[in-house]
Amino acid sequence: MADLVLGLASSHSPQLSTPAEGWAGRGERDKGHLELIGTDGITSNFEDLLARCDASRIAKEITQEKFEQRHQQNQKAISHLSKKLHDAKLDVLVMVGDDQQEYLLDDNMPAFCVYWGDQVKVAGHEAGPSTGGQHLIGYHTEDQYAPTDSSFGRHIIEQLMESEFDVGRSSHLDPRKGGRAKGGIGHAFGYVYNRLMTGDTIPTIPIMLNTYYPPNQPTPKRCHNLGQALQEAIASWPKDIRVGILASGGLSHFVVDEELDQAALAGMQAKSVEQLIALPREKINSGSSEIRNWIVVAGATEQLDMTVVDYVPCYRSPAGTGCAMGFATWE
Fold this sequence. Notes:
The protein is α/β, with parallel strands linked by helices. It has one domain: Protocatechuate 4,5-dioxygenase, Chain B (3-Layer(aba) Sandwich). It has ten helices and 13 strands. Strands 1, 4, 5, 8, 9, 10, 11, 12 and 13 form a nine-stranded mixed beta sheet that branches. Strands 2-3 form a two-stranded antiparallel ribbon. A hairpin with a 5-residue loop joins strand 2 and strand 3. The chain is globular.
């Protein structure tokens, strides 16, 4: 029987791999964002958000000293998770992440999609405007091909169907598709390969959630139920292997919402479905929608205990834009 021995969760924002001196530049580019969800739940452009925010409080969060301090916190937490992943000696890693029209496009975007091909392409990172013309720290510039576990992936698909989850499935990545991942797996998964798998590449099963795009975003309760069904599917695999599950994404962004993040973390630590269902739905959209990935892992690891390794609210502009980085383990 497969044994689910470890859960991990990590933000995957490019800001994690951007040197501290590049954060203000990312904040400048936020001025062009037209749909920023404020901590009040109101969606607006940058200027309107700036007019509503607590400018004096945020001014203390966007100094170069703060940028450097939080950058170092992030790197320490990434190293911690990477070591946990390495030390666990996993045979398979189930990865739960969102696809932002990188592979799954509007021609067919299921709420849940399990990949069960023999390998995945991880697109190399190219310098561009979003990174100030510099390659991201720790990212490969060339395309990579990473192994997956197709037989275990098929088993998970079959067991989820038995659990009445009508999941989408994909057995190959189409290089002809016009998504941003250049025919490869999306950045939620690329982050894991580039920043967390520092040793030998672990065979994976990528599970893609449509956290971003209405009208078929799964509810927090449905995500939690999916996690429970995944745990059952893993436990029913007859091979004696060690399995981990990882959530990639979150926490609140593109506006940092510390109250939302703490409510989500508290609900997961308490193993409280009621607290997770109570999260304000108008706020878990856009980048903050990736909290759903964490909820799936929380549902899958109810037999384990969650530890928040670090919570790092990385502000980058006077309007409070940025990304709140979260790092957690279940053991």
